[in-house]
Amino acid sequence: MNVIVRLYWQHDLDLVALTLHPMFEMGKWMKKAMIAYAQGDEEFHIPLPPEMPLEKPLENSDAHFALDPKNEIENEVIKILQQFRNGQRNSVIKLIFRNYLDELFLKPYIDTNTYIVKARGNYGGKKKENNISIPSVTKRTAKGDSY
Asked: What stretch of H or E contains 99?
């Protein structure tokens, strides 16, 4: 069984950054995480690679790994994946993978130039204006209420 996990920069920026990291093999680690989950291995963990700036923008990407139904352990992973609703397998694999990370990988979400992301307004060398507006909040009180 060939497994393709789709990663979207809007929702999976941490995983996209790991996938594009030259010292991290996302497919290999996703497969190991799925095997650890199938075996109930609570000791397994995925180390984060050393921090290093990427030279290309973070965009949608994917990770691939293969599961052999003839292999007893990998067949257990296949059975687990078949239990999930259609359209949910991708999300489940990412959830299981994140569960085994050594720590949360939040660096791609922080507003620095280390990771170039469309949403930050600095994509492709073009600076965009921040068009986020924050509505003013007014306090409403019911008759007789005072604060």
From this structure: helix 89-100
